[in-house]
């Protein structure tokens, strides 16, 4: 920093090792005045520590080798407004309630994949007075006559899955996958911390940095031509 002529504080190395588990990470979020369209998804991050050769020779150890990161993303602002870090033993549906509870503001709609096609997920959405848009699982059966899942099944049977996705705006869910991609492109496929609490803070720090970059500006894609078949 001295060579570059920058007067910036330098964190002690222990902030990134021993003391990281005690840090309080503040994830920046913009204030919202309109109802929020939330998209959720999860991904895995590798926990470094067991080398590929050791695993190949002796198998995976008892220590966890993956973390599961659950994200709630604003479909319009494209920033992360909810994050949970768990072991792979936790299913998406089990974390859904805590994830949605982190969203500040009025939720209009929540888009999720088939892993969230559970009664509990619909109940969480109902508690927030939000519409849950989830493709029913294969061979799904109707629930109560007025249940949103039953109505989704009827609409899919009448119009087809593709048209149902267009009508409900379900295509926005890909923005959650895009957020996962950006996270891994910026910070890699795994975490460096060895202790779980430190790993949670490491992921939250990554999300905080990614949100700051998102607020600086996002790329705008513009169609410049039409494909000719």
From TrEMBL:
<protein>
    <submittedName>
        <fullName>IS5 family transposase</fullName>
    </submittedName>
</protein>
<feature type="domain" description="Transposase IS4-like">
    <location>
        <begin position="34"/>
        <end position="211"/>
    </location>
</feature>
<dbReference type="Pfam" id="PF01609">
    <property type="entry name" value="DDE_Tnp_1"/>
</dbReference>
<dbReference type="InterPro" id="IPR002559">
    <property type="entry name" value="Transposase_11"/>
</dbReference>
<dbReference type="InterPro" id="IPR053520">
    <property type="entry name" value="Transposase_Tn903"/>
</dbReference>
<dbReference type="InterPro" id="IPR053172">
    <property type="entry name" value="Tn903_transposase"/>
</dbReference>
<dbReference type="GO" id="GO:0006313">
    <property type="term" value="P:DNA transposition"/>
</dbReference>
<dbReference type="GO" id="GO:0003677">
    <property type="term" value="F:DNA binding"/>
</dbReference>
<dbReference type="GO" id="GO:0004803">
    <property type="term" value="F:transposase activity"/>
</dbReference>
């Amino acid at each position: 920093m001295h060579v570059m002529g920058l007067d910036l504080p330098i964190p002690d190395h222990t902030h990134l090792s021993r003391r990281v588990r005690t840090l309080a990470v503040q994830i920046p979020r913009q204030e919202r005045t309109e109802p929020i369209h939330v998209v959720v998804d999860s991904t895995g991050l590798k926990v470094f520590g067991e080398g590929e050769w050791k695993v190949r020779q002796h198998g995976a150890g008892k220590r966890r080798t993956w973390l599961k990161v659950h994200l709630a993303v604003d479909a319009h602002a494209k920033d992360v407004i909810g994050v949970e870090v768990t072991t792979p033993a936790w299913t998406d549906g089990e974390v859904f309630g805590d994830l949605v509870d982190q969203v500040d503001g009025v939720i209009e709609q929540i888009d999720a994949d088939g892993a969230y096609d559970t009664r509990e997920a619909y109940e969480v959405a109902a508690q927030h007075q939000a519409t849950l848009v989830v493709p029913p699982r294969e061979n799904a059966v109707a629930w109560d006559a007025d249940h949103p899942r039953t109505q989704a099944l009827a609409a899919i049977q009448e119009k087809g899955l593709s048209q149902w996705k267009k009508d409900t705006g379900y295509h926005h869910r890909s923005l959650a996958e895009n957020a996962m991609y950006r996270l891994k492109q910026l910070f890699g496929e795994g975490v460096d911390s060895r202790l779980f609490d430190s790993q949670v803070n490491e992921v939250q720090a990554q999300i905080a940095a990614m949100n700051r970059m998102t607020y600086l500006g996002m790329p705008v894609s513009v169609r410049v031509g039409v494909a000719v078949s």
